[in-house]
Amino acid sequence: KKKWANFILYNKPFVEQFEETPLVVAVLTYMGYGILTIFGYLRDFLRDWGFEKCHVARERDAQKDFVPLYQDFENFYTRNLYMRIRDNWNRPICSVPGAKMDLVERVSKDYNWTFEHTGMVVREVINMGSYNYLGFAENTGSCAEAATASNSVYGVGVASTRYEMGNLDIHEEMEQLVARFLGVESAMAFGMGFATNSMNIPALAGKGCLILSDELNHASLVLGARLSGSTIRVFKHNNMVSLEKMLKDAIVHGQPRTHRPWKKILILVEGIYSMEGSIVRLPEVIALKKRYKAYLYLDEAHSIGALGPHGGGVVDYFGLDPKDVDIMMGTFTKSFGAAGGYIGGKRELIDYLRSHSHSAIYATSMSPPVAQQIITSMKIIMGEDGTTLGADRLRQLSENTTYFRRKLREMGFIIYGNNDSPVVPMMLYMPAKIGAFGREMLKRNIGTVVVGFPATPIIESRARFCVSAAHTRDMLDTVIQRRYGGKKRVKEGKLFPGGL
Amino acid sequence: MAWVEVPGQEKVLKPLLNTVIILGLIKCANFSPQAPAYHLILEGILILWIVRLLFSKTYKLQERSDLTEKEKEDLIEEWQPEPLVPPVSKDHPSMNYDIVSGPPSHNIVVNGKQCINFASFNFLGLLDNERVKQKALASLKKYGVGTCGPRGFYGTFDVHLELEDRLAKFMRTEEAIIYSYGFATIASAIPAYSKRGDIVFVDEAACFSIQKGLQASRSFIKYFKHNDMEDLERLLKEQEIEDQKNPRKARVTRRFVVVEGLYINTADVCPLPALVKLKYKYKVRIFLEESMSFGVLGEHGRGVTEHFGVNIDDIDLISANMENAVASIGGFCCGRSFVIDHQRLSGQGYCFSASLPPMLAAAAIEALNIMEEDPDIFSVLREKCEQVHKALQGTPGMKVLGESYAPALHLQLESSSGSRETDVRMLRRIVDYCLEKQIALTLARYLDKEERFLPPPSIRVVVTVEQTKEDIDRAASCIREAALSILK
């Protein structure tokens, strides 16, 4: 009976894969971390006793007798594991973060403690790391021209909050456009995506409310939930059985100890989870939400513009009604090439947020050229600029995603996530492979993102690719072939790159 | 073990009861009349106890397992949540934001009326500076608008590194770190260092972003009276006494003092030299929030440390936003590398958020260039602040709150009517009157229910270098008229 219900809820097959870690790999990974930890202790010992030069910054002499600012143990991981492969992150770029980018070349003579810029630039590196799903990170074209015009008229700063003197006409125009794009009654925009979550969830939930949050929610959602003061319960990732059980328990038993009924229940989910590449089971969540009268907060940071035939995000992808989602939140950083976040929903909700959101009252409003970029790119996606550029890019993105994932699977790599998600995590597992993979790919002129602990579980380190509409078929082929070469070298076992 | 059916007993008690009964039966089986007297008495007691247990009143340990499915369904049907948001009345002031058409510069168009801007924090007049716009434009042509990623994943541009370098050099510290949002700067910096169990001493007038940072840090917060160093010393002494009771815990509890250079809520300055003395006496670290004083105080605009001549290394962390004097967007923290480098991995607003758009960073660099080339701009600003401060004195029914060199003053009612709403409404009428007369002012806004120490309602008056003597005189007379006619 449940299978039929699911069949009716979903209008297309929902295929997700999360292969279990093979046992051999898990054991080897733990061993790898164990060896690294032992060496870490050894190096700390050598550093403390002065046998090795210490590059770590030290406290001032005048403040030596203060309580230490950091516990030694807190930074153990940073000093001994992260430091070895630090060159894979924070790579400076000096061009548009489009499909190809230019990286500033940097070298380290002391095993990643300090970096020097050689003054050279590594040109035309294929960019598989930036969140540029629809290719709007560009410095030419109608978006750039409109932003230029806006800069000449408005300047870059605003120097006041929305509530005081910072509410410009361009903000109002942008918010109306966002509401139309999402298909909701009203929308409000904020200057930072992270802050949109951390400043608005406390305005919506408080003491006596229950927040049900997915296991793998982003740090901003977790911070917002914590700052609200509500009770937080975590359900298993994308697991509707776990969510239903929690909802039932919550309503039947009420608040812990007093058993008073909850004031409201808020479910926090994301559209696409950026570390897993999974898409939320939105039809089921909405069915549950309606049955149990909870409210749904959907964070579409990665999915808006990237999923759906019209770029409307997960709601569009599943063909659902945007009015079913109580609070639609998203960011403009990823698919729109700008910065900031938005919340869309019913008029009462937005009116309430206008007066009670921390951001509207205390934080400076969005910069005008950024707001203009959002307006232009949104019009392009909606097709209102008179060209088919938006539709072309949406189609290109979904073709690229399907092709890339299929090819990688054919080659035997372990890929996580939904078949339609443009975020493609490829499993590496072992700590040494993280560093080796990042470096080998850079040598082959491809920029990738590798992630390890603590962003992911300790044995599930991965490389993450972000497919973009700006990537051509050739670029994707290059990446796949070179990665195959890179992976081969990694498989042939360079266990301790970069010296001990 | 369920062969004894006892009505209503919890599963935990059942096996125990059964064991007792079995033991009893075994004992009975071993019964023989030749047994000594005490043995018989013990048997008797055991049998009586079993009989008592069999017929004793049952009590439930947990009610959980006893709701039927039907009851659960009913509860689910009956439960009604509160509406997602409480209704907001139609004439709530936030329903009608003042709309600014065009740039918020010196001549600003508010609600369709051309006014002189006394409301935006554009202290150095850099919002419509041509050089700044040109540099932003050049950056836009090179990088586009957005960065499409956080700092860790190809979101670090050479412009960011240059801005951090320039800020560190300007403030004469070792290192600086940039955030993409002013509010998030201090709100991410505090929880990166102060964790559960640590102690933070905060001034009562601290701004909202500091309060949010403190809330996120889960530390013990102790408020001391605004600018009252004796109150702070009292709290520190009490803490010292606590420490002596538990020295082991004291050795790992970090202590911090968080103050602002120029307070946004009261427009006065913190007594920094006294604070530094307390720092070394009681071994606390100082976090200084300089959003309003960066680019304002000091001979070269370096803030309150330069104003008082305090060695910058004595302050552990200086945090400021670039949205006031620097007329860009974002914020930064600066200090020694030992302190700042930690935020690169544990500042939430830094690691988990997209980086500052490069054109805004380029605009900030150019603003810094202008500040460095022309340090006279700060003395001009100070002069204008003094002028405005003097001109506003003697406004009937209102008092001026703030230092004479503070660029963002508060005009409060001298005597409150008793209800905050009435006060706010009266002040709003004064603001509307001034808007009619083409002077743009604004009410200072707060979240009434969320602020810990809600400041009294006031009008914010901001001084910028672009205001001329005529503008200032006109504004002062306009406010005086408004106060006379409305406050009677």
From TrEMBL, chain A:
It is found in: Endoplasmic reticulum membrane. Residues 124-482 form the Aminotransferase class I/classII large domain. One of its GO terms (cellular component) is serine palmitoyltransferase complex. SUPFAM superfamilies: PLP-dependent transferases (SSF53383). PROSITE patterns: AA_TRANSFER_CLASS_2. CDD domains: KBL_like. Gene3D superfamilies: Aspartate Aminotransferase, domain 1, Type I PLP-dependent aspartate aminotransferase-like (Major domain). Pfam families: Aminotran_1_2. Signal peptide: none annotated. InterPro entries: Aminotrans_II_pyridoxalP_BS (IPR001917), Aminotransferase_I/II_large (IPR004839), AON_synthase_class-II (IPR050087), PyrdxlP-dep_Trfase (IPR015424), PyrdxlP-dep_Trfase_major (IPR015421), PyrdxlP-dep_Trfase_small (IPR015422). Pathway: Sphingolipid metabolism; Lipid metabolism; sphingolipid metabolism. Its EC number is 2.3.1.50. GO terms for molecular function: pyridoxal phosphate binding; serine C-palmitoyltransferase activity. Its main location: endoplasmic reticulum. It is a single-pass membrane protein. PANTHER family: CLASS II AMINOTRANSFERASE/8-AMINO-7-OXONONANOATE SYNTHASE, SERINE PALMITOYLTRANSFERASE, LONG CHAIN BASE SUBUNIT 2B. This is serine C-palmitoyltransferase. It comes from Esox lucius (Northern pike).
TrEMBL record, chain B:
The keyword Transferase applies. One of its GO terms (biological process) is sphingosine biosynthetic process. InterPro entries: Aminotransferase_I/II_large, AON_synthase_class-II, PyrdxlP-dep_Trfase, PyrdxlP-dep_Trfase_major, PyrdxlP-dep_Trfase_small. It is an enzyme of class 2 (transferase). Keywords: Acyltransferase, Lipid metabolism, Pyridoxal phosphate, Sphingolipid metabolism, Transferase. Pathway: Lipid metabolism; sphingolipid metabolism; Sphingolipid metabolism. Its cofactor is pyridoxal 5'-phosphate. Its EC number is 2.3.1.50. Transmembrane segments: none annotated. One of its GO terms (molecular function) is pyridoxal phosphate binding. GO terms for cellular component: endoplasmic reticulum; membrane. It catalyses: L-serine + hexadecanoyl-CoA + H(+) = 3-oxosphinganine + CO2 + CoA; tetradecanoyl-CoA + L-serine + H(+) = 3-oxohexadecasphinganine + CO2 + CoA; dodecanoyl-CoA + L-serine + H(+) = 3-oxotetradecasphinganine + CO2 + CoA; octadecanoyl-CoA + L-serine + H(+) = 3-oxoeicosasphinganine + CO2 + CoA. Residues 114-477 form the Aminotransferase class I/classII large domain. Component of the serine palmitoyltransferase multisubunit enzyme (SPT) that catalyzes the initial and rate-limiting step in sphingolipid biosynthesis by condensing L-serine and activated acyl-CoA (most commonly palmitoyl-CoA) to form long-chain bases. The SPT complex is also composed of SPTLC2 or SPTLC3 and SPTSSA or SPTSSB. Within this complex, the heterodimer with SPTLC2 or SPTLC3 forms the catalytic core. The composition of the serine palmitoyltransferase (SPT) complex determines the substrate preference. Belongs to the class-II pyridoxal-phosphate-dependent aminotransferase family. This is Serine palmitoyltransferase 1. The gene is SPTLC1.
